[in-house]
Design goal:
- With 116 residues, this protein is an all-beta fold.
- The chain is built from no helices and 10 strands.
- The protein has strands spanning 2-8, 13-19, 28-30, 35-41, 43-48, 54-59, 63-66, 72-75, 82-88, 97-99.
- The radius of gyration is 13 Å and the shape is globular.
- The N and C termini lie close together (12 Å).
Amino acid sequence: MTYFEGMSGSGICMVELELPPAGRSRAHLHRGVESAGYVIEGELEMHWGGQLENRDRLRAGDLAYIPPDVPHLVLNPTGAVTRALVAHAAASDQEGIELLPELEHSFDLPPGPTDD
């Protein structure tokens, strides 16, 4: 998953996300931070909820809103790169992030990205 430098201010930031085929985020939430993602190209599958029990397929032109404190994970189920714009109601896209590794075992997914 690649984030490109985006725009930010004191209360909002926006970054471009590039997700390779079969790529995914880690299960996480943004404590106290609203988020939204707009798919520019390709498709994403989003899982959300207390146990990531909800699922939706997003295609180019679709917008997803993620309320504060809602666990979620996005993945690219296709064979093509997916691009999206992601906005957070925070000065940084990393503000308020809490990783939730215990949710990654709740359904069959390949391991998430590693820290490099």
